[in-house]
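Q: What structure does this chain adopt?
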Amino acid sequence: MQSASDRHEYPAHWEADVVLRDGGTARIRPITVDDADRLVSFYEQVSDESKYYRFFAPYPRLSAKDVHRFTHHDFVDRVGLAATIGGEFIATVRYDRIGADGMPASAPADEAEVAFLVQDAHQGRGVASALLEHIGAVARERGIRRFAAEVLPANVKMIKVFTDAGYTQKRSFEDGVVRLEFDLEPTDRSLAVQYAREQRAESRSVQRLLTPGSVAVVGVGRAPGGVGRSVLGNIRDYGFNGRLHAVNKAFPEETKEVDGIPAHRSVRDIDGPVDLAVVAVPAEQVPEVVAECGAHGVQGLVVLSAGYAESGPEGRERQRELVRHARAYGMRIIGPNAFGVINTSPDVRLNASLAPETPRPGRIGLFAQSGAIGIALLSRLHRRGGGVTGVTGVSTFVSSGNRADVSGNDVLQYWYDDPDTDVVLMYLESIGNPRKFTRLARRTAAAKPLVVVQGSGTAPQGHAVRATRLPHATVSALLRQAGVIRVDTITELVDTGLLLARQPLPTGPRVAILGNSESLGLLTYDACVAEGLRPSTPLDLTTAAAPEDFHAALARALADDAYDAVIVTAIPAVGEGSAGDAALAEALRSAAEQVPGKPVLVVHVELGGLAEALSAATSTAPQAAAGPPRIRADHPFRALDRLRSPQAPAEPAAPGNSDRLIPAYPAAERAVRALADVVQYAQWRREAAQPGRVPEYEDIDEKGAASLIDGLLTRGQGLTLGTEETCELLAKYGIRAHRALPAATADAAVRAAATLGYPVALKATAPHLRHRADLGGVRLDLADEEQLRRAYTELTELFGTPDELRPVVQGMAPRGVDTVIRAVIDPAAGAVLSFGLAGAASQLLGDTSHRLIPVTDREATSLVRSIRTAPLLFGWRGSTPVDTPALEELLLRVSRLVDDHPEVVAVTLEPVVVAPRGLSVLGASVRLAPPPARDDLGPRTLPAY
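A:
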């Protein structure tokens, strides 16, 4: 099908899968000479009205000349793209390059006429908008900067496609035709439009998977047990509100039902639509199932089958083919090797998973790539065991397995505006697109908390992950910058999620501690100090404290403006039973209700009765008194119950208390860690509400820097600049680097010092000695020629010949704190700015802070203050504070340089000596290269397979 073109080879990189407005998918690809029959068939299915709008006249059929013109392209001046589903065209777009006279032209003409045609059955799905993004990207690649389109005034839909795109445009009306002209350079508005459409489309695609009206389980065994039969039973037992079907091609002809569910030999045999198919057949049978589902119009698949990329190269290719096959039919996939999906909404009630326990309804969205971790998380949120006392529930749960198609990014798009989800918890073994995830996380975290456990940085075998050169710790720091609450374990994930689910965000770090144990109060106090909170002296109510005493103390603490949160510690009283525990729980709840604006946490020790009494205080939704459905004896995960202590069903939440529920923790450290994470997140939310700005500097010569970079790149694709070139480029952005003159001999060193003026420094710049003053390769404050010659002799005697040392002479700078500034463009995460103090200690401790470029003034301020050694900049132990405003300005200038010129792929300023007044850049290096492609600025696409 991909035949060679007239002038260029077939541009395979223009092929892409896209998500449409309604959540379905389509494939966009160039039109070739082999598409003549498809084009004719497509045109026959277009209404006469749409044909009239396209050609401005009745045009019932395409002539042979038309078909030739619309299928023969040179992929430069004439380009046609088609959107396809199932291999058939549903829409086309074409551009023709024109000159100033409106006639066909070639480069350097930079304008083209563009025209669309969308099959009537697919109008309103956002197909034209997606095609406009892709044809625009193709045109920019071919040197076209402007599109022109002529549209009939009655063709309101097409006019809206152009006007809503967000490009800078001009509109005119002549001879009964609307002429639109618009620049193709992305603007802030066009990117905002693109991101909004992306969010709606991807959100809808996940919604279709989680809210089906009908479900078919393919691979239901004829005998009890097995994955397919178990999932079918889970869907049925949970009370799915839609239509449910069991499918197995091995069913005998006479089999009409399985476990009371209609049975079929094929999806094709089902009367009526099927929205979701849960596939539980061996991997070699999955292609046949996908074809049947696609032919029947199934909207999405949950593939539980294993044997894909996690099994090796053969399985990886099988997984690629699975995704290509499903997308060809417009279907999205969760999996393969998935654990399933759950939606607890009373309107849906879907448990299409292998979860051994049925989750309770709640307002926590839960995503896990690993099935085993999904089991653990659901269990901990379901019952009182596993650490945190109390029960909580989920709104939706997705286990993506190998996440070949639907990923955490897609589910984040859904949860962003899901009214049933207040808190998002995610276990991520890998992040396939860090740049996009960071963008989506920042937007989501501004509306609802996002808590993430991130894997170690080594992706599982089944995951397709973009290569990144950033250390795992750097990626984690960038996630925190985006508002993500980054935790290390699933225990911390649940601890923090419980606190966020029903407690308000604190307004600051001030914590009141009260309870009936002085020792437990002191442990809590020490934990608060260790986590950077500001605790008050614990209030000891003594072991004789009654529930009324707890109530009064908690009410006073909550009403006191000196506190932002309260931690209550409790130990059992001698001889007190469950009645006393229930009374204490009620006393705490009633006190918390009086002042609802501050979070309350409970740390309990051996108070089983209190834990049960407070269990309603950690549930995110009232639970039906009948309790959850029981797990069948034949469930494949039933044996897991033998590993857990038995639990009684939780009591329903007290009426009216569901909005003020108190989490209880069995250890002070866990409660305090959760509170500290929430305090930091609340601070981020307040700062995000008032974002900083990227300042303008009048002395920046952006055009001069661009011209210099273009000239330097003519010397090679990857280029590390020399000292003079580095200083010249940095100077364009107001960054003055101190000159360092080479000193191949002692006489050369003396001449360099005479040029720079005494006092000077003599430095060895060999790789093993560079920036290592601790090794003795630097001599400072050399006041005259005699001292300089003596120092030169000492260096050569200690470390080797001048050729080995590469000595340089540099003028002395004012004393201060040595720091390091780096910027790098990572192909996966984007441009990153880093800051830390110079020296081996900071390197060993990894004490470096990071921010995504472009950096705002507020982010530059936080960048300087977020390293652990920051007190050295602010007068630690009586030292003189240094000029941090000058340091922040330097960070902003470096950020601007890299953001304005993506060809600057790496910048290092080391050391930057920050003095009490001003700073000195004593070492600098810059690397230029063609910038890596930025898919976030291109058209919307799904990951390629």
